[in-house]
């Protein structure tokens, strides 16, 4: 889409695309102009080649090389390695340790995407982007989460097969997208479980059902995000690359609704 394909009203409104891209941290204005001229930038799904193209950062969707860009700089995206003993709530009515201790220094009002039970540690996303949170947290969109569980007993290949074929729980059948035995040592085993279900305490209940109660549980991955070396209790802003991956998933999922 070049300037001739845009309405006169759209031309008069908004900000220049390269300025908005620079403000969003994509690249400098000059480099952004080069990206646009090279046909590597799209607005609302259509490639643009005119650097003077005007966009509304709050409504228009921009992508570079097919990866979504967040133009709204008021949005915040944070990864937290939630410690054991902290409930997934911004304010716990029972006075238990909650997530507010991690968000107090942020000017934005952040909330958690999905939940981890108090005994489970690991990757939790905090944001003020409701649309993204909706896609990430709801099972129909198929965003997977990967957990590492230390369980009681020696897990066999047959047990791994049961997890992927499906088990029957009180609230219905459930199957892991993937399951893998990482280690068996002494009286316990390490198991990796990947699934997109959002049911309460689902990994713990699945493993208990196959005879291996969970001793320790960590969520290592949420969609394309990896916990990496982030230590327990630490948090950091998502990188531009990580955010681009999440936004791309979100936008593609919403087009299928």
End-to-end CA span:
26 Å
Beta-strand content:
25-35%
Mean pLDDT across every amino acid position: 91
Task: Determine Rg (CA atoms, Å).
Answer: 22 Å
CATH class wording of the largest domain: Alpha Beta
Question: Can you write the helix and strand succession as a string?
Answer: HEHHEEEEEEHEEHEHEEEEHEEEH
CATH architecture of the largest domain: 2-Layer Sandwich
The CATH homologous superfamily of the largest domain is termed Pseudouridine synthase I, catalytic domain, N-terminal subdomain
Number of domains: 3
Instruction: Give the CATH topology of the largest domain.
Output: Alpha-Beta Plaits
Which outline best applies?
elongated
Count of helix runs: 8
**Which parts are unreliable, with pLDDT below 50 for 5 consecutive residues or more?**
none
Helix content: 25-40%
Describe the structure in your own words:
- It is a single chain.
- This protein has eight helices and 17 strands.
- It is an alpha+beta fold and 257 residues long.
- It has three domains: 67 residues, RNA-binding S4 domain (Structural Genomics Hypothetical 15.5 Kd Protein In mrcA-pckA Intergenic Region, Chain A); 92 residues, 2-Layer Sandwich (Alpha-Beta Plaits); 79 residues, Pseudouridine synthase.
- Strands 7, 8, 9, 10, 13, 14, 15, 16 and 17 form a nine-stranded mixed beta sheet that branches. Strands 3-2-5-6 form a four-stranded antiparallel beta sheet. A two-stranded antiparallel sheet has the order 1-4.
- Strand 13 and strand 14 form a beta hairpin.
- Helix 5 crosses helix 8.
- The longest helix is centred in the C-terminal third of the chain and has 17 residues.
